[in-house]
């Protein structure tokens, strides 16, 4: 998700993570098929939970630790495992290791990558990882399903104030990550005009949520739109070829879309969410209760990594290129996301409200059921 670009930047995917969701479709058959895809995507996590954790506790999960971020202590190091995804935002995890933030706070971090948020959540619930990258949307759904997952530390999202700066035309805030594209000569100039049309979305979760919300915001009825799920590249190519009327796709896939005869109706995540945390670090309540000091130390380290990453986007690009084994030049203009140094509770609630409104959640959840309160001196030193 976006943050201000430095002078070298244009835009690219910030790793907007994709997770399963209950989705309202346009017809009974469409609702059934897409909801089925969503449930399949989280079924592995649910299975692990039933076998390994037996559901979440009704009691709030808190961390009460005397550990002080301003007085780092590495004298008694602990081994931790972190699972992420091979996307740009997760470069901050590697910087936490490279720059010594984990070691500084007495953590020997082993970082590995998996291809999807459900796989990352499964690793945590199944006990093969202590912490994992998760999406805010995926965490909310997992908790509603009774899975033993909690948000334990802040991560990436849309920079506070990004929407207002985009509206003001401020340099560095001209574009977002997720676009809603139509052919220039289609006659479609507003999202509400997609009623009765076929729209490709990159997944049945966040991509669909943002697209549906934007159509509704413009006065349209998303239930009158036929949604089809394609990969980001396939959706982009489909709208170019005229196989669909519109497509949600994202950077860097869509770079140069104007030269392909396309028009962007909306930078979806900015127009819909304005700002806020689209991702979060997750763990289980069981792990948190048993390893309070480790969770406190982890918060200190991840917050320092976040602050550093915001100041050094070029390092995020470089470490991502290294870990993905790609030419660094391919990420030279990548839009690096904004990294939160505190969990933005109000931002989480905005996403939650949107999910309830569009049928992705049945009802609002108690904050204590979703987020861990870390009661320690967790300020970045």
Automatic annotation (TrEMBL):
Q: Which Gene3D superfamilies match?
A: Periplasmic binding protein-like II
Q: Name one Pfam family in it.
A: NMT1
Q: Which domain of life is it from?
A: Bacteria
InterPro entries referenced in this protein's UniProt entry, alphabetically: SsuA/THI5
Q: Which parts of the sequence belong to the SsuA/THI5-like domain?
A: 92-153, 173-315
Looking up SUPFAM superfamilies in the UniProt record yields:
Periplasmic binding protein-like II
PANTHER family named among the record's database cross-references = ALIPHATIC SULFONATES-BINDING PROTEIN-RELATED
Q: What is this protein called?
A: NitT/TauT family transport system substrate-binding protein
């Amino acid at each position: 998700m976006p943050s201000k670009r430095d002078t070298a930047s244009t835009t690219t995917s910030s790793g907007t993570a994709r997770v399963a969701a209950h989705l309202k479709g346009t017809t009974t058959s469409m609702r059934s098929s897409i909801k089925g895809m969503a449930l399949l995507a989280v079924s592995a996590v649910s299975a692990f939970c039933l076998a390994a954790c037996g559901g979440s506790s009704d009691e709030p999960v808190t961390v009460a630790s005397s550990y002080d971020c301003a007085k780092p202590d590495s004298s008694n190091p602990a081994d931790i495992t972190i699972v992420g995804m091979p996307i740009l935002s997760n470069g901050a995890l590697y910087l936490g290791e490279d720059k010594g933030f984990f070691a500084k706070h007495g953590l020997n971090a082993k970082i590995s990558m998996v291809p999807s948020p459900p796989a990352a959540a499964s690793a945590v619930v199944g006990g093969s990882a202590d912490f994992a990258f998760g999406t805010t949307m995926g965490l909310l759904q997992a908790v509603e399903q009774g899975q033993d997952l909690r948000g334990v530390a802040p991560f990436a999202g849309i920079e506070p104030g990004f929407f207002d700066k985009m509206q003001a035309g401020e340099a560095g805030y001209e574009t977002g990550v997720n676009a809603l594209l139509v052919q220039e000569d289609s006659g479609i100039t507003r999202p509400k005009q997609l009623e009765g049309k076929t729209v490709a979305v990159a997944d049945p979760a966040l991509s669909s949520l943002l697209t549906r919300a934007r159509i509704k915001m413009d006065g349209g009825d998303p239930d009158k739109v036929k949604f089809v799920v394609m990969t980001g590249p396939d959706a982009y190519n489909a709208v170019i070829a005229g196989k669909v009327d519109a497509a949600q796709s994202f950077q860097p896939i869509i770079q140069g879309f104007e030269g392909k005869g396309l028009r962007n109706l909306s930078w979806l995540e900015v127009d819909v969410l304005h700002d806020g945390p689209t991702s979060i670090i997750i763990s289980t309540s069981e792990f948190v209760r048993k390893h309070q000091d480790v969770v406190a130390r982890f918060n200190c380290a991840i917050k320092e990594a976040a602050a550093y990453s915001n100041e050094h986007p070029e390092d995020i690009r470089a470490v991502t290129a290294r870990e993905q084994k790609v030419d660094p030049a391919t990420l030279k203009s990548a839009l690096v996301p904004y990294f939160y140094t505190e969990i933005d509770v109000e931002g989480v609630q905005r996403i939650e409200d949107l999910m309830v409104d569009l049928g992705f959640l049945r009802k609002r959840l108690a904050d204590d059921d979703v987020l861990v309160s870390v009661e320690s001196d967790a300020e970045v030193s």
